[in-house]
Design a protein that fits this description.
CATH superfamily: Sortase
Strand order of the largest sheet: 3-2-7-8-10-9-5-4
Number of strands: 10
CATH topology: Sortase, Chain: A
Helix content: 25-40%
Mean pLDDT: 77
Shape: elongated
Oligomer: single chain
Largest sheet: 8 strands, mixed
Number of domains: 1
Low-confidence stretches: 44-82
Distance between the termini: 83 Å
Radius of gyration: 22 Å
Number of helices: 2
Length: 216
């Protein structure tokens, strides 16, 4: 009976040790995944800037100081993860919150908040007169939560968008919330070129926040 009790304790110890190792591996993998995302992000931005500079544009004038809340990154499908390869057509920069992030074309399969800052289907590109360039991204703590610090912005803060060898500069003029209903109403002056950013409201699971910037 004593030997049987020892065997049970030994088995319980092995099971506990196994789950301890699994827990440690999970904790280690999350920061590594975030680091991997940051490294690839830097590479894509470097490639974008190199291509722009090669065409003698004003990329160096861009200030580089810089919809759903996700606490952990969702796992991409394995087959998709192996094929992730794309380049940026432009970049968004917001100095106050140290945000500098590229974006792909609307036609790209990676124009999705699961990979990047996403351009809304209804958006105009930044070079369209009186257009509205609409960008969406996650907030939260995941490595794809590119708009996690937007809540720190205040009226008057500035942003810039580099696109097609030009830099467009904007100033924040309005911030408002809307309930998550699957659609967003955008209130803006249609006589002024606009940049609109959309993400989930900070620490709020039921609302989303819209940031309206007007071109300077």
């Amino acid at each position: 009976m004593q030997r049987k009790s020892k065997n049970i304790k030994s088995q319980l110890f092995k099971v506990g040790f196994f789950f301890l190792i699994i827990g440690i591996l999970v904790l280690i993998s999350l920061p590594l995944k975030k680091l991997k995302g940051e490294v690839f992000e830097e590479m894509r931005l470097d490639i974008f800037e190199a291509n722009i500079n090669k065409d003698n544009t004003t990329i160096n004038n861009v200030n580089t100081e810089n919809l759903t809340v996700i606490e952990e990154a969702e796992e991409p499908k394995e087959e998709e993860d192996k094929k992730v390869s794309y380049s940026y057509i432009g970049q968004l920069s917001i100095p106050k919150i140290n945000l500098k992030k590229g974006f792909v074309s609307k036609e790209s399969k990676y124009n999705s908040i699961e990979y990047n800052i996403a351009i809304a289907n209804e958006a105009d590109y930044p070079d369209v007169p009186m257009g509205n360039f609409i960008l969406m991204a996650h907030s939260g703590n995941a490595y794809i939560s590119f708009f996690d610090k937007l809540y720190k912005l205040e009226i008057g803060d500035e942003a810039s968008v580099s696109y097609n060898a030009n830099t467009y500069r904007y100033r924040l003029t309005n911030i408002y919330n809307q309930a998550k209903t699957g659609t967003v109403a955008i209130y803006r002056n249609k006589n002024i070129k606009t940049l609109t950013l959309i993400t989930c409201t900070h620490n709020d699971d039921y609302n989303q926040t819209i940031y309206i910037f007007e071109e300077i």
